[in-house]
Amino acid sequence: MTFLCCALSVGWCVGCASIKPRPSVADNLPAAQSANATQPSPVAGTGEFLSALNATVTPPYDWRLDIKEPTKPNVKHYVWISPTGNTAFGVMKFSLPLPLPHDSVLWVFLQEMRKSEGAATLISKIWDRNLRGVRFEAEGGRYRLRTNFTIRGLTGWMTYAGTLRDQPVDVDELREAENAREGTRYGKPQK
User: Fold this and answer.
1) Among residues of the chain, what percentage have pLDDT more than 90?
2) C-alpha 89, offset from chain centre
3) Rounded to an integer, what distance in angstroms lies between the CA atom of residue 111 and that of residue 120?
4) Any idea which of 2-6, 10-14, 163-167 has the lowest mean pLDDT?
5) Which single residue of 6, 12, 37, 147 could bond 71 by disulfide (Cβ 3.0 to 4.6 Å)?
6) Please, are residues 134 and 159 in contact by the beta-carbon 8 Å criterion?
7) Do the strands 133-140 and 185-186 form a parallel or antiparallel pair, or are they unpaired?
8) Measured distance CA(106)–CA(85) in Å, rounded
């Protein structure tokens, strides 16, 4: 299971964003990655396909993109931070060297959370057949994550709405992050 170590670590930078019209996800990517994203949708709230994540995402309006640089090449982790800096919407895509069950990968994820945050408590876990995956809630030393987790073949995704534990939860921001999480679609869009 060490092949996933450091690959599924959790975290985001906390900061403030100024209010301005919502840029495209592609506008926030470094030049090398911008070519991988589609052009912005003219309609706010319309998802954009990001090839690095192999997913269509609809981040909340005016949230700032923070791309995490995992230590493993088989992991991509994008996080959008709310204007207050206390809430995040994140998508993590990872590759597995062989087919593994959800429980094994979740166990490794929690071990990594313990290493990076000093704590990891699985609060709830339920199989969702519509998601074809697991919905779980976990709390670490700094963050509380409400996560959709699915595996398709050798590729897995964890899409989450996260909050800082030491700050009050902004209910509206959390709702926005949860809506973005639920709106995320994995794989290439059907034409």
Assistant:
1) 67
2) 6
3) 7
4) 10-14
5) 6
6) no
7) unpaired
8) 26
pLDDT value at residue 78: 94
Kindly state the helix (H) or strand (E) to which residue 33 belongs, with its residue range. helix 31-34
Instruction: Compute the 3-state secondary structure of the chain and give helix, strand, coil in percent, each to the nearest 5.
Output: 20, 35, 45
Give residue 100's domain range: 19-186
Phi, psi dihedral angles at 28 (to 5 degrees): -90, -5
pLDDT band at 33 (very low <50, low <70, confident <90, very high): very low
Burial class (CB in 10 A: 0-12, 13-18, 19+), 13: exposed
pLDDT higher than 90, residue 84: yes
In a domain, 178, yes or no: yes
**Which tokens go with 177?**
């992050």
Question: Which among 22, 9, 30 has a CA at the least distance from the CA of 64?
Answer: 22
Number of domains in the chain: 1
Distance CA 98, CA 176 (A): 34
Domain CATH code at residue 83: 3.40.1000.10
The set of residues, in sequence order, having a beta carbon less than 8 Å from that of 129 and lying 6+ positions away, is: none
Q: How many helices (H) does the chain have, and how many strands (E)?
A: 4, 10
pTM of model > 0.90: no
Torsion region of 45: left, alpha or beta (phi above 0 gives left; psi -120 to 50 gives alpha): left
